[in-house]
UniProtKB/TrEMBL annotation:
Keywords: Flavoprotein, FMN, Oxidoreductase. It comes from Streptomyces kaniharaensis. CDD domains: alpha_hydroxyacid_oxid_FMN. The keyword Oxidoreductase applies. Residues 5-367 form the FMN hydroxy acid dehydrogenase domain. This is Alpha-hydroxy-acid oxidizing protein.
């Protein structure tokens, strides 16, 4: 695969974005790339990462640099998992199956969404490490069924998303009157409800309307405690920015926290995820792992968040860029490039692997 505009294969993740943009219909590109409101938080995620500087160490006498680590008890080729992302068949016919196959080949966990357009059983059959992302439903029995289904399919962790009582106002989708094509559905949800997501109306996001009718809007800490008691899987709580919320989640048995503003797709004006990372890490016990997402675009970004105390990152949009550009091979190219970048960043900063990164000093990070 080469970039026809520049005559070379992509050498940075952002170059996959242009390949994807050329490939996808405009409304699909807007759906995966856009944020909520005026997209202030979307921009803030990148600005926050860009202002962080690493202080490299020298003459450390290290051996060959490695990128491998452990994420929630599983060996990973780099401290990265593929983030949960909905309706991947919008960008490629195989959708989540192509992405999961590539993630397994490259040795990183793949998170299958409640809003996946391919079934979790087909994903886990590919043999990689699979986490299941849960949106709690208005019907508690339906939520319990999803949890059991994930367990029976062989998922290695359960990731509950807690920052979507309703979907943020994504203005690109409203302007486009975005709706799903008839051949793309959330296969884990009720088929009758799925029809709402394909009901195109001017000035309305049918996907947001479907979400409003399906997801629980009144979750509480009691619900999280109940979920902890109902599953044997490691529990990841995604969508936390406040350190007090992180501490409460950990006290209720969360095994990991994902510091996340949903990639700038929920509350516009929310703080950048990386700006809350250090405070969240300090608020939870060492046993509780801390991951981060929103705006990660390079191996250097990964090194920055590792230096701030994260165990790893969830990678979102760049994976979809690779999927749109070249299916599973495109996703593999994205992950391999990220691994190359991370290895270089680790080596040039004086680290022999991800475990050394917390010893680095960083400037410009929020306290």
């Amino acid at each position: 695969m080469s970039d026809q505009g520049t005559g070379h294969d992509p050498v940075r993740l952002e170059e996959f974005a242009e390949l994807a943009r050329r490939t996808l219909p405009r409304e699909v590109w807007d759906f995966i790339e856009g944020g909520s409101g005026e997209e202030l938080t979307l921009a803030a995620n990148r600005a926050a990462l860009d202002r962080i500087g690493i202080v490299p160490r020298v003459l450390v006498g290290g051996t060959a640099c490695e990128t491998a680590t452990e994420l929630l008890g599983a060996r990973a080729a780099l401290p990265v998992a593929v983030a949960p992302m909905a309706y991947q068949r919008l960008v490629h016919p195989e959708g989540e199956l192509a992405t999961a196959r590539a993630a397994a080949a490259e040795g990183v966990p793949f998170t299958v969404s409640t809003l996946s357009s391919q079934p979790v059983e087909a994903v886990t059959a590919l043999g990689g490490t699979t986490w299941f992302q849960l949106y709690c439903q208005q019907d508690p029995a339906a939520t319990a069924d999803l949890v059991r289904r994930a367990e029976e399919a062989g998922c290695a962790a359960l990731m509950v998303t807690v920052d979507v009582p309703s979907m943020g106002r994504r203005l690109r989708d409203l302007r486009n009157g975005f709706a799903l094509p008839s051949d793309v559905t959330a296969v884990h949800l009720d088929p009758a409800g799925n029809r709402r997501a394909g009901d195109r109306q001017t000035g309305v996001s049918a996907v947001a309307e479907h979400t409003a009718e399906t997801f629980a809007r009144s979750l509480s800490w009691d619900d999280l405690a109940r979920l902890r008691g109902e599953t044997r899987l490691p529990l990841i709580v995604k969508g936390i920015l406040d350190p007090g919320d992180a501490a409460t989640a950990a006290s209720l048995g969360a095994d990991a926290i994902v510091v996340s503003n949903h990639g700038g797709r929920q509350l516009d004006g929310a703080v950048a995820s990386v700006d809350m990372l250090r405070a969240v890490r300090e608020a939870v016990p060492a046993r509780c792992r801390v991951l981060v997402d929103s705006g990660i675009r390079s191996g250097t970004d990964v090194l920055k968040v590792l230096a701030l105390g994260a165990s790893g990152v969830l990678l979102g949009r760049p994976v979809l860029w690779g999927l749109a550009a070249d299916g599973g091979p495109g996703v593999s190219r994205v992950l391999r490039l990220l691994r190359t970048e991370l290895r270089s960043a680790l080596e040039l900063s004086g680290c022999s692997g991800p475990a050394d990164a917390p010893w680095l000093s960083v400037l410009g990070a929020a306290r």
